[in-house]
Amino acid sequence: MDNSVISDGFAPLLVYGNWFQFSPGERIAHEKVESVMLLWCRSGRGNVIANTKTFQLPADRLLILPWNHSIEYRADQTKPFLVAGLHLIPRHQRTSEIVFNVAHGSHGPMYSRGERQPITDPEFQTPSIHDLSEMRGTHHLIEYAVLAFSQMRDTVPDQMWLLGQILLFEIKKLFHDRKTKRELFPAALKRLVIFIEDHLHEKITTNTLMEISDKSPSTLHRLFREHFNQSPMSYINLQRVNRGAELLRTTNMQVFDVAMQCGYEDPFYFSRCFKNQMGKSPLQYRQATRGI
After folding, report:
1. 111 versus 79: which is more confidently predicted?
2. Which residues form the domain of 169?
3. pLDDT of residue 185
């Protein structure tokens, strides 16, 4: 066990775990969740919007969400997902009363409790997605943790301290392994990711990607599936929508201009793609996310 997860009277604690079957098209949103959350899809599919970024969540995908994350679940209309989740407090005061619950909003008795603290490691500050089909040990661990929480939280509460330590150790290992893997990204894929980010305002075709990478269509598809769990075009479309969301939040640009900046010649098509991913039209999204 990594002793760095236990220090100065604080230790990781598992405070909640459950499964939830969504209905077709069902949506649930929480503005602020005070935990590090492990969220995965057991069956079905849907989208999750975490901290304004959209993630496709088919079976065997794991999302790790940072402290104080916002989240919206958007179940598929025909095959709604069955999801499982674990809520981890990275630093919980050992001498304080344990409450097996988590704050889902900025109001109420669970919010901003002094005995509960986040972790400051940089990799814990943004959402990340992982492929559980390549991490069977992790998959078995998190499934066991949900079951153990439901069966032992009241009779063997000390088990939740142990599970908290193991889960935090496992998350840190995942982040370390991912960083190592990304450092070993094929040079062609690195070039493609940089090119896409710098040219989202332009038309990008498979032929363009082939020229940049000097790879065949089948190799391109394999690279993106292996590293991003998406096809090249799906990856590009998701980046365009995320760029559009950022511009809507942070600028006063008209929707037409946002669409142009994101590579859409037709603003109506941009609006349809945006709503499919984000669940709101561009104007509705701006109204919901903009401050003064």
Report:
1. 79
2. 3-182
3. 72
Q: Do 158 and 236 have their domain in common?
A: no
User: Residue 227 is which amino acid?
Assistant: H
Q: By C-alpha distance, which of 83, 90, 43 is closest to 63?
A: 83
Task: Indicate whether 116 and 99 sit together in one domain.
Answer: yes
Residue pair 64/36 in contact (Cβ under 8 Å)? The answer is: yes
Mean pLDDT for the chain overall: 89
Q: Are 274 and 238 in contact (CB under 8 A)?
A: no
d(CA 267, CA 281): 11
Bridge partner residues of 54 (DSSP): 49
The end-to-end CA distance of the chain, in Å, is 47
What digits encode the pLDDT tens for the residues 183-203?
667 888 888 988 998 888 889
Cα dihedral 1→132→232→188 (10° resolution): 40
Tell me, what DSSP letter sits at residue 224?
H
Rounded Cα gap, residues 230 and 47, in angstroms: 14
